[in-house]
Amino acid sequence: MEPQKEYVLRTVEERGVRLVRLWFTDVLGQHKSVAITPAELEAAFEEGVQFDGSAIDGFSRIQESDVLAVPDAGTFELLPWADASEPSARIFCDIHNPDGTSFEGDPRQVLRRNLEAAQAEGYSFFCAPEVEFFYFDTGDPAVGPKPVDQASYFDLTTADVSGSLRKRTIHMLEAMGIPVEYSFHEVSPSQHEIDLRYTDALEMADNVMTLRLVVRKIAMDDGLFASFMPKPFTDEQGSGMHTHMSLFEGDTNAFHDADNEYGLSEIAQHFIAGLLVHAREITAVTNQLVNSYKRLVVGDEAPVYVSWARNNRSALIRVPVVKPNKASSTRIEYRALDPAANPYLAFSLVLAAGMRGIAKGYELPAEAQENLYRVSRNEARAADLARLPTSLDEAVDEMEDSDLVREVLGEHIFEWFIRNKRAEWSEYQRHVTPFELNRYLPNI
C-alpha cells in the first residue's frame, strides 16, 4: 500500500477517528459528502465507495448511475469542529466509473486532467484567490440580507461579531492545514475577505471548497448566515474572487523576465493574451449565476471590459507590482471570477485559455491606461474594447460556440452545464421582479 494511505490508516486508528467524510462536488460546485466508518476506509482506498450518481446534479443518467468515490489520501485532515469524544476526518475524492476509469462528470478530475496537460508542456500552475463574502443575520429570502456590521474597507472590527467570526475562521482553516495570507473587512457593510496563500491549483480548489464550508459553519455556530452570493445588495459592491496565478518551470517562475519593460516573459504575455482572447467564452463558468452579472456592471469595482494593465484594478487582468528581489512572485490577477464559481472548473478554464495563448503564440494587445470604470460604451467602441457578457444568457451563448470550453470540460459536463444554465435563465426571464413592479405598476 502507498505510504500516504498507510499514514492515513494509522492516524485514523491512533486518533480514534469514528467517521471519515468523503467530500466531492457536483458540476455547479455544491459540496457533497458521504460518511464511512474507519473499518471501510482501507477498502475505499482500494475499491472506492459506490453510490448513485444519478442523484447528483450533472453526474449520471439513471441507466448508467453507479459511480465510485475514490479517496485521495493526500487530502486527509481531521475536522477541528468534531466532538472530541467522536473525532471525525475528511478526505476529498475523485469520482470513477465502475471499471476504474475517470468519471467525465467529476469537476475535480477535469482540473486534474488539465493540470496534467500543462505538466506535459513543462509547467505547474499555481494560484491564490481572494475570497469575498458577507455575513447576514439570516439566510431567509423573505427577510432579505441584513448586515451584522456597518464597517468599511480595512476597518478594525476586533471588538464586534464580524471580527470574531473571521478570526475563528482563520484559526480553523489553519488547523486544517490551509494557510491564510490576509484577512480584512471589505468595502461593503458586513463584507469580508480571506486571501489564501499560493499553492498548486488542485490543492487550492480543495482549499476553496473547505473555506466555504468553514466560513458558513463558524457563522452558523453564532446563529448567523454567511453568503458567497456575488451581489446581494443593489447599492453596495458585490463579492469577487480575484485570483492570482502563475506558471512555474520547476522552481523557476515562467512569468518573470527581468529584461522586459513589464517584467513579463514571453510565456506570461502569451498566457495573458490567451485569457483575453477567450475571456468571453469562459465567463459562463467563472460567473455562473444570473446574479453574477449584477456585479459585472459599470459603476461597481468589477471588470467590465476585456483588458489588461499593470497595477490598474479596473482591468480584467492586472499585473501586480513585484517587490524588489522577488522575481518568484511575478503573477497576474484575473478579476472576473466570483466566489459562487466551481473552483475546479473555473481554474481549469483560466489555465487552458492561457495555455492556448502560449501554444498559438497570441500577441499581447496594448495595455489599458485609463480608468475603465469610467469608460462609456461609445468610448469603449472607439477604443475597440470588447465587453464581458452582460447576462448569463449572453455568456452561455458564447460558451456554447467555444471549442476550447467544450474540450476543457469534456462533452458530458459541457452539455449538462449548458442545459442547466439555459433552464436557469428561462426561469429568471419569467420572474417579475420588485424593480418592475415598483417602476411600472403605478404608472402603466
Describe the structure in brief.
This protein has about 450 residues and is of the alpha+beta class. About 35% of the residues lie in helices and about 20% in strands.
Description:
With 444 residues, the protein is of the alpha+beta class. The protein has 2 domains: 3-97, Ubiquitin-like (UB roll); 113-439, Creatine Kinase, Chain A, domain 2, CATH 3.30.590.10. It is 36% helix and 19% strand. The chain is built from 13 helices and 16 strands. It has helices at residues 3-14, 41-47, 107-120, 161-175, 201-221, 266-286, 292-295, 343-360, 377-382, 392-400, 403-409, 411-430, 434-440; strands spanning 19-25, 31-36, 49-52, 66-71, 77-78, 88-96, 124-136, 180-185, 191-196, 199-200, 225-227, 241-249, 252-253, 308-310, 317-319, 332-334. The strands form 2 sheets. Strands 7, 8, 9, 10, 11, 12, 13, 14, 15 and 16 form a 10-stranded mixed sheet that branches. Strands 1, 2, 3, 4, 5 and 6 form a 6-stranded mixed sheet that branches. The chain is globular. The model has no long low-confidence stretch (mean pLDDT 92).
Summarize the SSE layout with pairings.
Layout: H1 3-14, E1 19-25, E2 31-36, H2 41-47, E3 49-52, E4 66-71, E5 77-78, E6 88-96, H3 107-120, E7 124-136, H4 161-175, E8 180-185, E9 191-196, E10 199-200, H5 201-221, E11 225-227, E12 241-249, E13 252-253, H6 266-286, H7 292-295, E14 308-310, E15 317-319, E16 332-334, H8 343-360, H9 377-382, H10 392-400, H11 403-409, H12 411-430, H13 434-440
Parallel strand pairs: 1-6, 14-15
Antiparallel strand pairs: 1-2, 3-4, 4-6, 5-6, 7-9, 7-10, 7-11, 7-12, 8-9, 12-13, 12-16, 15-16
Helix pairs in contact: 3-8, 4-5, 6-8, 6-10, 8-11, 10-12, 11-12
